[in-house]
Amino acid sequence: MSLNPVMLGVRFLLELTAIASFGILGWRAVDAPWRFLLVLILPIAVAALWGTFAVPNDPSRNGEATVAVAGAVRLLLEIGVLGGGVAALYFAGWHRAALISGIVLVVYQALAYDRIGWLLKR
Fold first, then answer.
1. What 3-state DSSP class applies to 57?
2. Which pLDDT value is given to residue 103?
3. What is each CA distance from 102 to 37, 48, 105, in whole angstroms?
4. What is the three-class DSSP state of 67?
5. 3-state secondary structure of 92
6. How high is the pLDDT of residue 59?
7. Alpha helix (H) ranges present in 1-122?
8. How far is CA 11 from the centre of its chain?
9. What is the pLDDT of residues 62-96, one digit of tens each?
């Protein structure tokens, strides 16, 4: 699997958007004082999941896995986090941002067929 720097950049932006989206949802979904807690806890929890579970020797990451998982599990995690970011924007009332993020995510996944194939073989 070759690593395209543009695809890695898009994926990184999708990751940041997803993590921030959970914070936006936490802020918009509940009233104070809980919103102050959720705006911190939700993005931290999502980022921890994202960074903890990885496929060993994944060339799109540092190659190390804190908790090694099969490629299919990692793919489900990636779809859950990135797709969850889209859903978080939608449920926070940011429908246009959710639509744009969702379109970028679908196009990215379609173009990242080699990564998806690599994950499913692991």
1. coil
2. 98
3. 27, 22, 5
4. strand
5. coil
6. 81
7. 5-29, 34-52, 71-91, 95-111, 113-120
8. 8
9. 767 789 999 999 999 999 999 999 999 999 999 99
**Residue 3 binned pLDDT confidence (cut-offs 50, 70, 90):** confident
Place of tokens 């993590």: 19
State residue 28's pLDDT score.
94
More confident residue, 63 or 17: 17
Start-to-end Cα distance in the chain: 13
**Among candidate residues 112, 109, 85, 81, the one with its CA nearest the CA of residue 99:** 85
Tokens of 118: 């690599």
Mean pLDDT, the chain, whole residue set: 93
Lookup: tokens for 41: 């806890």
Q: What is the DSSP letter of 61?
A: T
Contact 85, 18 (CB under 8 A): yes
53: β partners: 67
- The C-alpha atoms of residue 53 and residue 70 are separated, in whole angstroms, by 9
Residue 93 Rama label (left phi>0; alpha psi -120 to 50; beta): left
